């Protein structure tokens, strides 16, 4: 503890204006020795592993959200980016079609590994393939960064330093366990590693050996990547035998404000409200007594879905409705060669995230639950919009618009 306090005092002794990058690099090496090494050693990491991991590693000054020693965290940037053009942007035809096409090729190429993983985890191969394709283009997208440089930099001087320091220690333990050589451990700029894009702590929990060589190599082994993604979903609650969801038609008599994970009903109960599959086919008999949730990611301006708990398991991989919807849809295209969604994504107003946050604060002031005024139109915000529209005599659309921003901004 005394060494840690001394190291931290040293790091904050000089303002950044009195330092050059060379001085900060020297402080980084001191931090590695006095802060990281004792914790790594306590976690079973050898000195040889530690030295190999940081050989030649310097700070990466191009990463976002850095806080060099002696400086204050950057002020939160104004939320000026456009966030709410049509969600159709997430489903660009070229991206969807190419991911599905390559996914079908991969399904044939890796049929054995996929079948073995499905038997072991209950997760369908086409869902695993869709995640793999979304995360790294089935391993074809370059993963450019040295993991220890990224995590070292962000652990030493970022707005989430303790989180990234813990991830750095996990990365050292992974090398110590023999899964990969330190120089081969590649990640994104945020430290997400390999073809499934696992953070090191997720690797320790979920990565699995899929080819029987005793290592979990998510960087170069397709079999290990497949097994690791399947294990992740299984460990996070995937229900074997259930689908992820179905595109549906929602009659005008059913309010878009009854969507959301906290308003589940059985599929047969949704049917009783008049909700049907857009394909015209009945819901599978095995699904009709299972719980499902109404999802309208663009309110009345886009397709609607009944999603199962497996949809929310996909969201544990990336907490985005559109991400999970992309995975489910591309998975269906891989497995069943289906086409585009039946309902179109209709144009919506371009809004700034700060505008939506102001609208959310206006709804909160009137007693509506928006799930937090963060500028993101999650299901609680969409529902609150619909409830306010009904209360004010309007047809509910359940999605932000310029008119709503003007009417509700604080």
UniProtKB/TrEMBL annotation:
InterPro entries: Lysozyme-like_dom_sf, MltB-like, MltB_2, Peptidoglycan-bd-like, PGBD-like_sf, PGBDSf, SLT_2. Keywords: Signal. GO terms for biological process: peptidoglycan catabolic process. The keyword Membrane does not apply. Residues 27-332 form the Transglycosylase SLT domain. It holds the Pfam family SLT_2. Residues 354-407 form the Peptidoglycan binding-like domain. This is Lytic murein transglycosylase.
């Amino acid at each position: 503890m005394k060494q840690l306090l001394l190291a931290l005092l040293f790091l904050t002794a000089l303002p950044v204006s009195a330092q050059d990058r060379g001085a900060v690099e020297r402080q980084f090496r001191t931090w590695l020795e006095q802060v990281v090494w004792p914790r790594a050693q306590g976690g079973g990491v050898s000195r040889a592993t530690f030295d190999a991991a940081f050989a030649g590693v310097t700070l990466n000054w191009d990463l976002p959200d850095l806080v060099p020693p002696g400086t204050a965290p950057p002020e939160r940037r104004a939320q000026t980016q456009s966030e709410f053009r049509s969600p159709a942007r997430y489903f660009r035809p070229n991206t969807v079609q190419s991911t599905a096409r390559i996914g079908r090729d991969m399904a044939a190429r890796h049929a054995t590994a996929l079948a073995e993983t499905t038997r072991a985890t209950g997760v369908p191969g086409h869902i695993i393939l869709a995640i793999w394709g979304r995360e790294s283009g089935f391993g074809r997208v370059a993963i450019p960064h040295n993991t220890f440089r990224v995590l070292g930099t962000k652990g030493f001087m970022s707005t989430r330093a303790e989180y990234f320091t813990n991830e750095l220690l996990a990365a050292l333990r992974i090398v110590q366990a023999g899964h990969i050589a330190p120089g081969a451990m590649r990640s994104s700029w945020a430290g997400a590693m390999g073809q499934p894009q696992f953070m090191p702590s997720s690797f320790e929990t979920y990565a699995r050996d899929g080819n029987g060589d005793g290592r979990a190599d998510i960087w170069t082994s397709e079999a290990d990547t497949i097994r690791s993604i399947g294990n992740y979903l299984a460990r996070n609650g995937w229900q074997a035998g259930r689908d992820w969801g179905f595109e549906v038609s929602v009659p005008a008599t059913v309010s878009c404000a009854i969507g959301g994970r906290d308003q589940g009903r059985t599929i047969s109960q949704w049917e009783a409200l008049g909700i049907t599959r857009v394909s015209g086919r009945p819901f599978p008999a095995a699904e009709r007594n299972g719980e499902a949730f109404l999802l309208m990611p663009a309110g009345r301006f886009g397709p609607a879905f009944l999603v199962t708990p497996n949809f929310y398991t996909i969201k544990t991989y990336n907490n985005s409705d559109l991400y999970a919807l992309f995975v489910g849809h591309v998975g269906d295209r891989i497995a069943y060669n289906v086409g585009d969604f039946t309902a179109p994504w209709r144009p919506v107003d371009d809004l700034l995230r700060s505008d939506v946050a102001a609208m959310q604060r206006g709804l909160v002031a009137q007693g509506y639950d928006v799930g937090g005024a963060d500028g993101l139109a999650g299901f609680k915000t969409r529902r609150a919009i619909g409830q306010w529209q009904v209360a004010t005599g309007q047809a509910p659309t359940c999605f932000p618009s310029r008119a709503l921003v003007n009417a509700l901004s604080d």
